Every structure is written in C-alpha cells, then in structure tokens.
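Action item from last meeting closed. Structure (157 res):
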C-alpha cells in the first residue's frame, strides 16, 4: 500500500510538517510527563483511526518503557485500573478535544476542571497544544492514507 501523497518528498508538505514538528518539540520539552504525552497521542490516534500514528506512538511508548498492559488498555482507560487520576484527566480531555463535533458544548467544564486539578497552567497549555497537534498529524496521515506498521522507534528523531 502506498500513500496518496509522499509527505516526505513533497517540498510544501515537508515544510508544513517541519513547522508542526517544531511545535511538537516545544510541547515535548515541557513538564507534562512524557508518559502522559504518549498516552494522549495514542488515544487521539485511536479515535481518529490513524494507523500510522497509533503504530508510531505505541512503539515509541514501549521503547521508552511503557508496559504492554497499559498500552493495551488505552482504548479502555475508563475501566482500567492501571492509569493515574492525572492520566485519566488527560485522556478525558483528549477524547473530548478530539471529538469536538460529537458534542454541542465541545469540552465540558467538568473535564477541564478535572485536568486543572492535576496540571498547572503550563502543563495545561502543553496538553491543549499536544491534543491539537496530534489531531493535525492524524488528519494529514488519514487523508493521504499513510501506511502503518513499518515505523521503528526513533525513526524521525
């Protein structure tokens, strides 16, 4: 299977992705825990049906020491006992921020307040930015049907 557009070979796509990557680097360098960042990226990618990003971020998380049990339970985080209250708050914010069109009020005040109990203002800014960025990546990859399965941890870093 080939992508509809070579994102890495097209000069304009490459330029846009470099800017998105720069924004992603700014987020990854924050105090938002790295494990939380990967969980957020995985959950949004699952919701959006982005195989490329789901493959990438589950492999990156495993490479960084995340357990198979937690990775296997991301989609069922509400019923799983392996996530902290802070991670649950981040996952809820991720789901609501990713499924904006599914709810008339978008992100609820309750979800925001719960996240704010666990994260300071800079971490909330990082979390919001991360949710927006992973959704952008997901949409690009889904639009071009970027194939999944061949990613190797660190491949783009």
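Sequence:
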């Amino acid at each position: 299977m080939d992508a509809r557009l070579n994102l890495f070979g097209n000069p304009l796509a490459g330029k846009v992705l470099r800017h998105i990557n720069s924004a992603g680097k700014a987020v990854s360098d924050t105090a938002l825990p790295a494990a939380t960042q990967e969980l957020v990226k995985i959950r949004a990618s699952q919701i959006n049906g982005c195989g490329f990003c789901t493959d990438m971020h589950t492999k990156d998380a495993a490479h960084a020491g995340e357990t198979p049990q937690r990775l296997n339970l991301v989609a069922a985080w509400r019923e799983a006992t392996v996530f902290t209250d802070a991670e649950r708050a981040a996952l809820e914010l991720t789901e609501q921020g990713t499924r904006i069109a599914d709810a008339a009020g978008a992100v609820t005040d309750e979800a925001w307040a719960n996240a704010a109990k666990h994260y300071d203002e800079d971490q909330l800014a990082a979390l919001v930015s991360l949710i927006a960025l992973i959704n952008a990546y997901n949409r690009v990859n889904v639009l071009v049907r970027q194939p999944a399965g061949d990613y190797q941890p660190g491949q783009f870093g």
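Note appended to the action item: The radius of gyration is 15 Å.
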